[in-house]
Amino acid sequence: MDGILNVLKPPGMTSHDVVYRIRKLTNIKRTGHTGTLDPGAAGVLPVCVGKATRVAEYVLETDKTYRAELTLGTSTDTEDVAGEIVKQSVVPVITEKDVSRVLTELLGPGHQIPPMYSAVKKNGIKLYELARRGETAEREPRPVNIYNIELVRLQAEKIIFDVKCSRGTYIRTLCVDIAAKLGSCGHMSFLLRTAVGPFALDKSYTLEELEELDAAGELKSALLQPDAALAHIEAIYLSAEDAQKVSHGVSVSVSEAKESLVRVYDPGNTFMALAKINSGILKPIKVFLP
């Protein structure tokens, strides 16, 4: 039972809660998610099971896509609906053209200051732990990239938008920034993650659906192979002789000269390993075949 489950996390559960349910379902302790979703948020949460946990770090690097709802006129200490209200302001008259203009301004590379209620660490302590003690800490801006952002609907004081962004982008903070640019304050009132890299919402399973598959003895049908998470990494195909060497962790010579990370396949198109190429030498770093 090795692979990746594309789980649809419901609101009200932590990402760890989901992992716990999958561990109980599969009876496999070596299980982990690939990027935390806040308890109040819903959506795609890929969960790696067994040997597939070895690719979790690469899923973390992939882009994310969300549908978010911003409520104007009220800001909270957590920047989302779970927090305490810290400010209220009048919501000016806003048109769809106004919102689209502001969203366009946010496109491309930029920087964000992580919110205090986040898992970012300061001197070894998570920021949300400091925030719960009533403390604040200086936070360094972090690079983010907004690849696409579009207005879905504007209704009274609520703005619904879709965004595709780089790892580490806080949609809560993005909502606060949008509200400020529109001359108001605001908070994120709902969040749905619609994709994590190649894992899409329409191909995800609820926990109940996975439990039904398990009861029918068909849970393996929902498991994706580990390389399903690695489509953003270049593939290389080896001869049978070189594939045999790599399966034992032995480096081989390849014609590829540039330095790169690659996923390795044998002549039968079986995913074998992740490897690094340097000066024409392919060195396996993670082998997935016995």
What does it look like?
This protein is of the alpha+beta class and 290 residues long. It folds into three domains: 3-62 and 198-228, 2-Layer Sandwich (Pseudouridine synthase); 67-158 and 167-187, Pseudouridine synthase, CATH 3.30.2350.10; 233-287, PUA domain (Archaeosine Trna-guanine Transglycosylase, Chain: A, domain 4), CATH 2.30.130.10. It is 21% helix and 36% strand. It is built from seven helices and 18 strands. Strands 1, 2, 3, 4, 7, 10, 11, 12 and 13 form a nine-stranded mixed β-sheet that branches. Strands 14-16-17-18-15 form a five-stranded mixed β-sheet. β5 and β6 form a beta hairpin. α1 (15-26) packs parallel to α6. The longest helix is centred in the first third of the chain and has 12 residues, at 15-26. The chain is globular. The model has no long low-confidence stretch (mean pLDDT 91).
Short description:
The protein is an alpha+beta fold. Helix content is 21%, strand content 36%.
Kindly name the structural category. alpha+beta
Number of domains: 3
Structural Rg: 22 Å
Relevant CATH superfamily of the largest domain: Pseudouridine synthase
Query: In angstroms, what separates the terminal alpha carbons?
Result: 15 Å
CATH domain fold name of the largest domain: Pseudouridine synthase
- Low-pLDDT parts are none
The proportion of strand residues reads 35-45%
CA-based shape: globular
Task: Round the mean pLDDT to the nearest integer and report it.
Answer: 91
Percentage of residues in helical conformation: 10-25%
Name of the level-1 CATH class of the largest domain: Alpha Beta
Please report the total strand number as a whole number. 18
What is the N-to-C order of secondary-structure elements (H for helix, E for strand)?
A: EHEEHEEEHEEEHEEHEEHEHEEEE
The main pleated sheet reads as: 9 strands, mixed
